[in-house]
Amino acid sequence: MKRTLFIIKITFTLLVLALAILPVILSSHPWPEASRDYLYEHALTDTGAVNTVSSIYLGYRAMDTLGETLVLLVSITGTMGILINLGRESEEEEAVSFSLAPEKRPTNAQRTHLLEVVSSKLGPVVLLFGFYVMLYGHISPGGGFQGGVIVASAIVFLALGTETQTKLTNTNVLGRIEALSFLVLIIAATSGVFFESGFFGNPIKSGSSLSANFIILLNIIIGLKVGTSIAVMCIAMMGGRRGH
Amino acid sequence: MVIERILIFLLALIGFTAIVGAKNIIKKVFGLNILNAAVVLLYILEGSRIGDQAPILGEGITNMVDPVPQALMLTAIVIGVCVTALALALAVRLYKATGSLEIDTISERLRSEH
Amino acid sequence: MTFLLLSMILALGSFALLSKDLLHSVIALSALSMLSALMFTILKAPDVAITEAAVGAGVSTIIFVWAIRHTRRRSKD
Q1: Residues of chain B contacting A68 with CB distance shorter than 8 Å
Q2: Pick from A61, A51, A212: which is nearest to A137 by CA?
Q3: Whose CA, among A57, B20, C31, C58, lies 20 to 30 Å from B30?
Q4: Taking the model in full, what pTM does it have?
């Protein structure tokens, strides 16, 4: 009886939802073309970026990017605050979760040596590719977010391997890079006010040959911020925190 | 065509059913992810009907795809992964506090503790 | 081509919700992200394709596997 009532309730909810969304699905209104035509004419001269999508979210609508960076900061802070206090059961569980020195690894660990060697050799290659995607965001597909997530994956690779001894997997160093890049983002945003272009405006006058530099700077800052914050969260999930 | 929109609408319905009707908390988070994917697919599909070249200006580009929905969906994908991370951290915290992942058992145990 | 990819995405989505083993569902979600990244490339949206591939098959899978590891792997429903 309870099960039939449950199924009836779910079916009723789905019918109401379908009725609300169906006019969108079956409409034949054509997609408007005015924004595409305007951007085709003016995107290169207004912002200096050949990639039109980059010129939208870093030039015309940079406030949305600032809000998204803030959402990322708040959610990663909340996740870290919850998972740092989860507690640890035993040392044996620690052994399969993060990379240990070879003399402390127990003999029946569930991870073979193959994973650690391969990922520590692949880590620097992926890091280089991440920086390439980040820096060439204004002329080819890519940009700040894409490069940042690839850099975060590369730092996770480096943390899984035992052959590397770098400071890049230390959570203190990564936390400081993230805070510093957020500060530089705020400074770059307010510098437009003093150069008479409005908030988040381009401080270099558009039309000269240097006007794409602001977009490159924003790409680097956003990429570093996104990359290091996601890497800190993943390293804390794997068990190594506070400078293992 | 209309058939692709109907398939995306079915995907959104599946995601919504999982959020409302699943008994396991992690399956509810799966549903949130699937709903996010369906919305992103719908916007990019609709934006791609008015042109046939990628929106990167260069030589010989005359008829490019609408770039505005693509810029909006970049933000949507990143925010989706942030919400998933926070929801899963809360689910693990609930498991450590009550010992189970089904919502009926969790509400019973939480009610009997007070 | 988009019709074929959409029907495969639908099948993977329903498999992820009907399976009793949560690790199988996580692999199905990762495959769903890869197929939708392929579909974004066909629909001429390269920025969104790179983001979906890096986020869906990278960070999101790591987070789900961590959550399953600290709780149970089988679900009763």
Answers
A1: 75, 78-79
A2: A51
A3: A57
A4: 0.89
